[in-house]
Amino acid sequence: MDPDRPMKALLQRQWQTGGWLSALLTPLSWLTGAVVAGKRTAYRRGWKHAARIDVPVIVIGNLYVGGTGKTPFLLATLEGLRARGWTPGVISRGYGARPFDKDTSDTPRTGQGVLDAALFGDEPALIACEADVPVAVHPRRALAAQALRRDFPSVDVIVSDDGLQHLALARDVEVIVQDARGVGNGRLLPAGPLREPASRRNTVDVVVTNLTGTGDAAPSVNASRLPRQLTMRLVARHLRRVTDGDIRPLTWLTAGDAGEDRDALAPLRIGAAAGIGHPDRFFATLRQAGIDPVITRALPDHFDYATSPFSDMAVDVLLVTDKDAVKCGHLNDPRIWAVAVSAHLSDPTFFDWLDTRLHGHTPA
What we know:
Blueprint: H1 5-17, H2 20-44, E1 57-61, H3 70-83, E2 88-92, E3 109-111, H4 117-120, H5 122-131, E4 135-137, H6 141-151, E5 157-161, E6 173-179, E7 206-210, E8 228-241, E9 247-249, E10 270-274, H7 279-288, E11 295-298, E12 317-321, H8 322-325, E13 336-345, H9 350-360
Parallel strand pairs: 1-5, 1-6, 2-4, 2-5, 6-7, 7-8, 10-11, 10-12, 12-13
Antiparallel strand pairs: 3-4, 8-9, 8-13
Helix pairs in contact: 3-5
């Protein structure tokens, strides 16, 4: 389905352990490092200035390019903030959305509830739907933040979906979400997977390690110093059919589910697909929940689903991520079910700490 997958697989292996291709690309990574250092120096010396918003700003990003589990952690953060009396809103670049016209480049798109992924991007559309929070998208996140405050004045804390490297917006809290791959071979793009040097992890406030799909134990945590370290695991909760919103428990996928009229039928033939940065993690989440698809399909990240990639999949049920589901409605395929997941954090006091930190409101 993805003709470039063999090359991407080679690059991913090189990004983890190094090799001939990584070595060949190393001079280009030096250029990346020079650009990153130059940008940070410009802001540090005052040649460029970061826009400050009148409410606290949390930036949740990553160093490793591609999917690390950032969106589930962001959703958990929104829930944690609401539980402590905050009214959060989200800003994003809106990756994958219809490009902004030059004539309207200073007009961010804002909305809440069910949003068109083609206008807002798949992740912002998912966040708006799942968390029912106001969302604003624009390549310049400072403009998105200003529009969010203008159109939704009740918002009293802004969470930036990605944007760790977008220094034009001042922030109060920086969070890096990584997974078991860590920093890979430690090199910058394109010789390695990093957007910034690995040492950047030492300058943020929080480092979250997503251990979903691994057998690794949570490391010991010293919560008295920064960066604050915690781990996260994603757990499948239930299924939602894309065509009609029908909700079913995970046990519905087994023929012997009590209370179902399917207990005399043969087990369902289950397939799974994911158009995310790290599809294998989604498949691992399913297997940890006791669901073993007979066929899996890894699609390119932010796959647009303009046409169905499932027509040749002879299965009864197709499991996809929530991020994919927001773009699958027009396919009118009753086999497609979104798997809702929740983030389980190793530190039960984290959101209390975050609440206290935000009340201090001292922008970085």
